[in-house]
Every structure is written in C-alpha cells, then in structure tokens.
Amino acid sequence: MKQSLKKEGKYSYLEVGEGTPIVILHGLMGGLSNFDGVIDYFSQNGYKVVFPELPIYSSNILKTNVKAFAKFVKDFIDFKGYEKVILLGNSLGGHIGLYHTKINPDKMAGLILTGSSGLYESAMGDSYPRRGDYEFIKKKAQDVFYDPEVATKEIVDDVYATVNDRMKLIKTLTIAKSAIRHNMAKDLPTMHVPTCLIWGKNDTVTPPNVAEEFNDLLPKSDLYWIEKCGHAAMMEHPDEFNKIMHEWLKKSNI
C-alpha cells in the first residue's frame, strides 16, 4: 500500500490503524517505503502505526546528533498525546530509540531493534571521498543486504544523491561521529523496558555479535535471527519479520 506523510505543525508523519502506537524510527538513509510491510500488517492487526520523518538532514548542524533526535521523538510523542508507545528502530533509528528509552522509560511499552547502532556499526566511513563513483556507491548499498537485488536502482540513486549533496554529506559524517560518541554499553544494563531484537544472520553493518552483546546487556531482551538476511530485515524478509514481531508482542502482552 502506497502511503504518504501528512504535515502537522513541525512534524511530517503517517498514522494508520487503531490501538497501541508503534512508532517507527528510520535509519540514516531510510524512509517510509522501508517499512511498507510493517505498516500494512500491524495497522490491520490491532495497532496504530506511526511513522514520523526524522529531521536528519533538516536540523541545524548543532542538533544533528542522537540525543537531539531522541528529544525530537519525545516531543512528537507528547505532541500526539500518546501515553505509552512501542518504538521500532532500524540502524540509526534503533540507536535513537535506545536513547529515548534511557531518558523516557515511563513512555515505553516496548522496544524493537533491528540492525541497531548503539554498540558498534561498520558504516561507509573512510570511503566517502569516492562518493562520485556510482558503481562504488551501488556496491556499498548492495552490501547492506544479503540479496543484492533488494538494493533497487531507486535505493541506489537515493544514496548516491545523498552522499553527493555536500551539506547532507557533512551531516551524515556528523551523525556517524555522534553515534560513536553515544555508545550505550554502560546504559543498557539499567534499561528494563521489554526489548525484541530481530537480527539478520548475515548483517555486515551491525554483525551478529552486536545482537548477542545487546541481548547480554539488556535485562529484558529476546533475540531472534532471520537467516539469509542483512542489515534491514523488515525490507528483506517482511513476512518473517512481522511474524516474529507480532508473536513477541503477544507473548509480552504489549
């Protein structure tokens, strides 16, 4: 189902379905379409699914960091008047969800992380100077997935445009440094929100040992693997992802 965002105040977001809100937090170069399967399934299965567009490239450079984005999420939840939410975050979105959970545990019914940063990630890093090389960017985009065909031309074109926009590139590097600076290892043992970890067994950005470390450090976490799957499980195996997530929500009475 093709969805579009609505604008209200300073927020652009999607809101479909009824029930406990599942607030989706996208990654650095992620967008609405990455979560089509999640949105369609859960909005028809007893949940309100909400997708706020994070101000990753529209914020002042001084507010281009994990902490500021977590505050944005809290302000959005308050703006919408949600009492408790389930946060679902992929990659940087997971990291933002973790930081929000640390600061606002009273707002959290549950947390779902897939390919989350917060402990470790292998990004494009020093390779950015080759941003003008389309084939190089295409290979980097394909490496995010187990099946390179998931990296459609549209996805590759979006990444290419982002890393060739000077201000977006500066902000991308600023966010990458912020993610390293805001390592969550010391915070995780104090976070008692029920957490579901859904991880691609072949994730090369946040490898399987990262998921295992999250599971070891978080007091109330459950770890689920998806085989033949890279960094964005909800895109590569949407049906399996939804099944795992839904069964965990039911098991956890969320």
Task: Provide an overview of this structure.
This protein has 254 residues and is of the alpha/beta class. It is built from nine helices and eight strands. It has an eight-stranded mixed sheet, sandwiched between helices. Helix 4 crosses helix 5. The chain is globular.
Silhouette: globular
Read across the widest sheet, the strand sequence of neighbours is 1-2-4-3-5-6-7-8
User: What is the number of helices?
Assistant: 9
Q: What proportion of the residues form beta strands (DSSP E)? A: 15-25%
What string, H for helix and E for strand, traces the elements in order?
EEEHEHEHEHHHEHEHH
Stretches with pLDDT under 50, minimum 5 residues: none
In short:
By secondary structure, the protein is α/β, with parallel strands linked by helices.
List the helices and strands and how they pair.
Blueprint: E1 6-8, E2 11-16, E3 20-25, H1 36-43, E4 47-52, H2 66-80, E5 85-90, H3 92-103, E6 108-114, H4 134-143, H5 153-163, H6 166-181, E7 195-200, H7 208-217, E8 221-226, H8 233-236, H9 238-251
Question: Main attributes?
Answer:
254 residues, alpha/beta, 8-stranded mixed sheet, 39% helix
